[in-house]
């Protein structure tokens, strides 16, 4: 019983840390975008954990955009996100679906570039 409570508390603390890191990232992005850019300013480095959280958020944004797009069969599409670059892997029924998936993914929040590795689904394979 105690271990279940400890696990629940640990998960809650981890969630709070993740949300806090994401909020700090958003706040620092807002501050950086409002400040004038100079050549001597370097881009702030995110911690590994903050980057993982950011990548996960982008991945969820793309998944949501793909599933919300009417007429798009995204069931065979896997999504990887790393530092704003989204890779689409898997298959789609035809080339039109692939082109649509790429367009929808590019429009999702946080996506800087899409690496399309989708193939047309071949029945029987």
TrEMBL record:
Record domain BON: where: 54-122
Pfam family, one: BON
Keyword RNA-binding: no
Superkingdom as given in the UniProt entry: Bacteria
Listed Gene3D superfamilies: 3.30.1340.30
UniProt keyword annotations, A-Z: Signal
Name by which UniProt lists this protein: Phospholipid-binding protein
Species, as recorded: Paraburkholderia aromaticivorans
Signal peptide boundaries: 1-23
Tagged with keyword Signal: yes
Higher taxonomy: Bacteria, Pseudomonadati, Pseudomonadota, Betaproteobacteria, Burkholderiales
InterPro entries xrefs: BON_dom (IPR007055), Lipoprotein_DolP (IPR051686), Transpt-assoc_nodulatn_dom_bac (IPR014004)
């Amino acid at each position: 019983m105690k271990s279940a409570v400890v696990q629940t508390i640990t998960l809650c603390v981890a969630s709070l840390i993740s949300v806090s890191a994401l909020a700090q990232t958003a706040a620092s992005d807002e501050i950086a975008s409002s400040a004038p850019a100079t050549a001597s300013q370097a881009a702030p480095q995110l911690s590994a954990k903050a980057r993982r959280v950011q990548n996960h958020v982008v991945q969820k944004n793309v998944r949501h955009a793909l599933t919300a797009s009417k007429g798009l069969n995204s069931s065979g599409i896997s999504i990887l996100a790393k530092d704003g670059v989204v890779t689409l892997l898997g298959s789609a029924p035809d080339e039109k679906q692939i082109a649509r998936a790429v367009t929808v993914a590019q429009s999702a929040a946080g996506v800087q570039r899409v690496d399309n590795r989708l193939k047309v689904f071949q029945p029987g394979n």
